[in-house]
């Protein structure tokens, strides 16, 4: 980190990348601390439009969710959706909507999560495979948590194949982490 330039978009993008690595490693405090200089550098509302800030905000939303701060994470996801619309960043909009759907699902608001996913379904074919895998991950975990393990497994397997084919270790790690949580919840609730 000391080798990075002291400021600027390149520095911020690098810090966001390192923060994402720490997030996957489960080092949530360090991940969050790496984002502080980026999120704290906003001096005017227009500064929020900068690419590095927008994607650091997505990472921050994911950190909040992993820290168990679900309501803060949902508020952040909604802010991010607005920011993506304001800047015309379609990819970020799709990523933020998936993040929101996953947060809603984890908080038990399955109906709203499914409505959010329905809004994405028509455009997934034009998106990077990582988003398609994320979509399947949400469906798999929702179905597993509801006890439909057979159908959930189909979505889990498809997400896993997609993450493996694009060599997304962070995607696989998150898929397995969320799958374990969803299947444990289903076992706890029983038939």
Q: How would you portray this structure in words?
A:
It is built from nine helices and no strands. It has 191 residues and is mostly helical. The longest helix has 21 residues, at 169-189. The N and C termini lie far apart (50 Å).
Summarize it.
The protein has helices spanning 9-24, 28-39, 51-66, 70-87, 90-106, 110-121, 129-145, 149-165, 169-189.
Mean pLDDT: 89
Q: What's the helix count?
A: 9
Overall shape: it is globular
Give the terminus-to-terminus CA distance: 50 Å
What is the gyration radius calculated from CA atoms?
A: 17 Å
Q: Uncertain spans, ≥5 residues at pLDDT below 50?
A: none
Q: How large is the share of residues in beta strands?
A: under 5%
Strand tally, please? 0
**Main beta sheet strand tally, sense and closure:** none
Keyphrases for this structure?
mainly alpha
């Amino acid at each position: 980190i000391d080798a990075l330039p002291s400021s600027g978009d390149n520095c911020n993008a690098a810090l966001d990348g390192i923060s994402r690595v720490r997030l996957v490693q489960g080092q949530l405090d360090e991940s969050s601390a790496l984002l502080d200089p980026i999120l704290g550098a906003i001096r005017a509302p227009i500064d929020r439009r900068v690419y590095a800030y927008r994607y650091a905000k997505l990472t921050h939303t994911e950190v909040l969710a992993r820290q168990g701060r679900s309501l803060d994470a949902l508020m952040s996801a909604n802010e991010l959706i607005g920011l993506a619309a304001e800047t015309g960043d379609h990819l970020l909009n799709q990523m933020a909507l998936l993040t929101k759907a996953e947060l809603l699902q984890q908080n038990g608001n399955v109906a709203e999560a499914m409505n959010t996913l329905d809004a994405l379904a028509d455009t997934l074919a034009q998106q990077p495979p990582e988003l398609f895998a994320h979509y399947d991950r949400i469906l798999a975990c929702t179905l597993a948590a509801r006890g439909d393990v057979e159908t959930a497994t189909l979505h889990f397997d498809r997400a896993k194949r997609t993450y493996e084919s694009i060599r997304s270790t962070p995607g696989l790690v998150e898929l397995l982490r969320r799958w374990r949580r969803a299947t444990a919840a289903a076992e706890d609730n029983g038939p």
